[in-house]
Amino acid sequence: MSEQDRTDLAAMEKTEEPDLDRGVIEAWAAKMISNPERAYRATFYVATIFFLVTTLFPFYWLLMVALTPRSDLSSVGVLTPGGFNPGAFVEIFTRLPFHRYIFNSFLIAVVATVIVLFVASLAGYVFGRLRFRAKNVLLLSVLVTSFFPPAAFFVPLNRLFNQNIDILRPLMQDGSLYNTPYAIFIPLSALYLPLSIFILMTFYSQIPDGLEDAARVEGTTRLGALFRIIVPLSAPGVATAGVLTFITVYNEYFFSSLMTDGRPGSWAPMLEGILRFQGEFEVLFNLMAAASIVAVLPVAILVIVAQEKIVSGLTAGAVKE
Amino acid sequence: MASVTLQDITKQYEDVTAVNDMNLEIRDGEFITFVGPSGCGKSTTMETIAGLTLPTEGAINIGDRDVTDLPPKDRGISMVFQNIALFPHMDVYENISFGLRLRKYDQEEIDRRVEEAADVVQLEGMMDRMPKEMSGGQRQRVAIARAIVREPDVFLMDEPLANLDAELRVHMRTQLQRLHRELDTTIIYVTHDQAQAMTMSDRIAVINGGVLQQVAPPLECYNEPANLFVAGFIGSPAMNFIEGEVIDGGFDSQYAQVDFDPATHGVSPGQDITVGIRPEDVFLEEDARKAASPTKAFDAVVDVIEPMGKEVNAYLLFDRDVEASAEGRGEGQLLINLAPDTDIAEGDDIRIVMDRENVHLFDRASGDAVTHSLE
Question: Are B140 and B164 a contacting pair, CB within 8 Å?
Fold first, then answer.
């Protein structure tokens, strides 16, 4: 319907019932009916504002708490800080080596993501592109592990990692994995692997067989075809799996806190660092808030960068041929 | 440049045998076409040559190397695929040079070869286009350039023209023949379209049900088909078949009789045989002189006439009681080609003769050809 038609229609309606006395709401409803695009736009804005407020307001308030000096914490307003003390963002690094905690988490998350993407790529290739006996049984058993609560694995793993294993002695001082990054990213990689396998499997299975055959005839091995052709064409899927894994591992607390003693030198993660601002007699909410904001930054940057990748991957018309 | 030898190739999937004990010698520099209906095993055969699937039994030699267990990349082959299979995330240059870059050629050599290949298929000035920005024909030319740039011993082409429109297909057909002349390389071509097989190949390998039916030059397959399947598959419109049996002094069936001496053609009275006659080898009785050696005349009724311009296809019934099948080629029916100015109309009673020189006899039990001429 063109703009012209619509105004004509509205005019017709008006001439048909010219003297109808309408209330404010009734008149507004009539206007929306004759011009539905306005209604759609209004709904869009309402929904957007709602989601923005519910997701962004906590951050805003975190910033307000962080800016409030320690002594004025009781007077933080809903929209305004109880004072102005940007020094909190410096203090978190001086009072504790908070950068070390962030580095720990970041490194653990990067290593876990690399391991997960590599192993899940191989597994995704097998499940998505090959036909073999007992494939579904195998796939199901891989997926089932991801349905277990992580806590179920904790006790056996904790016992295992506290054991002194002689083979590891040359690598670790006491031969135990406790207080090492291995104790964190090994179980976490394993836990988040099934989801990534599932995501990559669905993406890889959609790449036409001809492309893989072409790559192999042109001179790659199966593995070469996977990493040169299938993975690049599945960029959106790989980015999704990678971002999901990175964020979950970076934010992970349960395993990370139990597999270390909480000191920064023992590879304790970022969340452990934030909680360290909670003293015996006092909780330094402003420092915790400042630390939280700093800790969120790497993830936020990653998501923004990866989002571009995802979009560019999609617009390349990757899976079409 | 190399010959290709298939020795006892069998490919067994869980419950089907895709290729059954195939033996084939492909000569150096030959353009050979695997042709057959879909699902006949021709693509599987090509995939085993490429190394994309491993044969259950048998051996493959390219040149004098046994390549049976080599991966595709080490076989000295290149391949053009039915769905073209350009890498969508690479531009034309990257697509063509992919194999060379993997083999770590130096940049100068790569540039020179890519330019040469692009020249052969007329792709100049398109090096930085992405595949999705190109038409079907252009993409297919890129795929061919990618195949020739590595100067392989053997080209494999798996229905490369199937996804192109009819006009482009005919154009690319001549281009491929020209390419074969220029490169002088062994080309193995797979198609289900017997017209492509007839027009392009030095030899045709007709495959059905995973079994090789006949390997011969196109005209030999046409004029001397080895069995009923080849006779029915090669040639368009297809050969007519009349089922009957051998009697003393010739062939007898419900609708037609042909006189010949059974003994000289290696059949004996009582044997079930099928007479095969191509549409162009049947004539109206008054035109019988056009046949080198006409048989005696039969009665027939004109069912449907299809004027084609340079000829007329006439679907005949041997008598009015025959029930015409939808495709017009069933029991008691006959398709013939006539000159475009022939004066017949649907429903006419006519008399026809066959050309004895081109009457084929097939043993019905085995399907094998017995003779290709009654002279």
Answer: yes
* Backbone torsions φ then ψ of B302, nearest 5 degrees: -80, 125
Residue-wise pLDDT tens digits, A70-95 = 888 777 777 777 788 888 888 888 88
Task: Flag if B52 and A211 touch (Cβ within 8 Å).
Answer: no
Q: How far is A228 from chain B (nearest CA, A)?
A: 10
Third-level CATH fold of B240-371: OB fold (Dihydrolipoamide Acetyltransferase, E2P) (2.40.50)
Give the integer Cα–Cα distance in Å for B147 and B85. Answer: 12
Q: Omega of the bond prior to B279 within 30 degrees of 0, cis?
A: no
Share of chain B above pLDDT 90, in %: 55
B203-255 tens-digit pLDDT? 999 999 999 999 999 999 999 999 999 999 998 888 999 999 999 888 998 88
Tally Cβ neighbours within 10 Å of residue B368: 12
Q: Does domain B4-233 have CATH number 3.40.50.300?
A: yes
CATH 2.40.50.140 domain residues, chain B: 240-371
Interface contact B132-A219, CB threshold 8 A: no
Residue B238, CA distances (Å) to B228, B257, B335, B360 in order: 11, 21, 9, 13
Q: In sequence order, which residues have a C-beta less than 8 Å from that of residue B227 and are 6 or more positions away?
A: B213, B214, B362, B366, B367, B368, B369
CB atoms within 10 A of CB A251: 16
Q: b/e per residue, A9-25, with b = 16+ CB within 10 A?
A: eeeeeeeeeeeeeeeee
**What does pTM read for this prediction?**
0.78
Write the residue in A211, A232, A318 that is nearest to B85 by C-beta.
A211
Smallest Cβ–Cβ distance between B85 and the set A220, A317, A321 belongs to A321
**Structural domain boundaries in chain A:** 3-75, 89-315
Instruction: Identify the H or E element spanning B303.
Output: strand B298-307
Contacts of B89 in chain A (CB under 8 A): 232-233, 316, 318
- CA atoms within 13 Å, Cβ hemisphere of B134: 25
Q: Per the CB < 8 Å rule, is B84 touching A321?
A: yes
Residue with tokens 């046994």: B66
What's the complex ipTM? 0.82
For residue B51, which residues of chain A lie inside 8 Å, CB to CB?
Answer: 216
Residue A321: pLDDT band with limits 50, 70, 90? very low
Q: How far is B89 from chain A (nearest CA, A)?
A: 7
Q: Tell me if B79 and A217 make a contact (CB, 8 A cut-off).
A: yes
- Chain segment A273-320, per-residue pLDDT in tens: 888 888 777 788 888 889 999 988 888 888 888 777 666 545 444 443
pLDDT tens, residue by residue, B25-34: 999 999 999 9
**Residue of A148 and B372 predicted with greater confidence:** B372
Averaged pLDDT, B269-283: 92
Residues of chain B with CATH 3.40.50.300: 4-233
Domain A89-315: what homologous superfamily?
A: MetI-like (1.10.3720.10)
- Kindly list the residues from chain A whose CB atom is less than 8 angstroms away from the CB atom of residue B88: 211, 233, 316-318, 320-321
Q: Which of B73, B82, B87 sits opposite A216 (nearest CB)?
A: B73
B157 to chain A: closest CA residue = A214
